[in-house]
Amino acid sequence: LSDGVVPRELIESSKDFFPQCKGLSPAYGAWANICGTDLVRDGDGTVFVLEDNLRVPSGVSYMLENRAVMKRVFPELFTASDIVSVDEYPHALFDMLAALSPRPGDDPEIVVLTPGVYNSAYFEHAFLAQRMGAELVSGDDLIVIDDVVFMRNIEGLKRVDVVYRRINDEFLDPEVFSKDSMLGVPGLFAAWAKGNVGLANAPGAG
What we know:
Elements: H1 8-12, E1 36-41, E2 47-53, H2 60-73, H3 75-80, H4 89-98, E3 110-113, H5 122-132, E4 135-137, E5 142-145, E6 148-153, E7 156-159, E8 162-165, H6 188-193, E9 198-200
Parallel strand pairs: 3-4, 3-8, 8-9
Antiparallel strand pairs: 1-2, 5-6, 6-7
């Protein structure tokens, strides 16, 4: 922007530009930890990237379930061909999220933040939470106290280290973005900005 390569007004007038994020630095300097890349193949077989989804990328659970079905229905296909396994994806996802924890340790508390059962990708939210051994939570399940995120459970409050959020930026925190959001967590942005919780993907990544 400073060099004039991209017009500043083009960025700053975008509905997806969040001035609240200016000056912040996520863990490892990585704003997008998870990318959903849509690929297409044209008539001569050339593969192109159609788009990169960085805000709330979804769809990987359907690929994992599809692969499981294919292995049962066409086992000979996998015997005869050198097909790369995708079975380790939930473990790799967990390890990546665990690396964002602000508290070093072997057992970080990771939650998957979902808008709820009426969201079109709710199956994926539940699927990934189960496969990772993470808690599936909605905004009402979390509370921020002194810029630290906690999860409500039957034993009281438990500190949360990493939030894998599956809700759009504008609904993430009513104190910072859409004031009327019933899906997000008041104070979540401040907790993340102060380094007290990991958040994937970071606000503004879209």
